[in-house]
Amino acid sequence: QVQLVESGGGLVQPGGSLRLSCAASGFTFSSYGMSWYRQAPGKERELVASIGSSGLNTNTVKGRFTISRDNVKNTVYLQMNTLKPEDTAVYYCQAYGPNEYWGQGTQVTVSS
């Protein structure tokens, strides 16, 4: 079955970095664009970054973040630098293409 499993979240101090990973299985990963979204408590889910199926087209809403993908490992990454408390949220990966799939999310907490 289709699975998107996020990992790499946790507690980090302001100014720190985290690298999120999302491992995909059960569908043809290289045929799908991938995105990272986040949802903070009491707020709507928002797009953080997206990347085309070949990895050539990227869109990053947050300039401190970088999205990348490995079509051999079927994994998409989100490198987050200079983290701020307002980056605290549950981060979700999404596959978009012939269908749409979502992961369960990983918690990122930025706090001293």
Q: How would you describe this structure in keywords?
A:
globular; single chain; 4-stranded antiparallel sheet; mainly beta; 112 residues
Structural class: mainly beta
Instruction: Please tell me how large the radius of gyration is.
Output: 13 Å
Per DSSP E runs of 2 or more residues, the count of β-strands stands at: 11
Q: Approximately how much helix is present in the residues?
A: under 10%
Percent of sequence in beta strands: over 45%
Structure notes:
There is one protein chain. The protein contains no helices and 11 strands. With 112 residues, the protein is mainly beta. The protein is globular, with a radius of gyration of 13 Å. The chain starts with a strand and ends with a strand.
In short:
The chain has strands at residues 3-7, 10-12, 18-25, 33-39, 46-51, 58-60, 65-70, 75-80, 89-96, 100-102, 106-110. By secondary structure, the protein is mostly beta strands.
Topology (SSEs and partners):
Blueprint: E1 3-7, E2 10-12, E3 18-25, E4 33-39, E5 46-51, E6 58-60, E7 65-70, E8 75-80, E9 89-96, E10 100-102, E11 106-110
Parallel strand pairs: 2-11
Antiparallel strand pairs: 1-3, 3-8, 4-5, 4-9, 5-6, 7-8, 9-10, 9-11
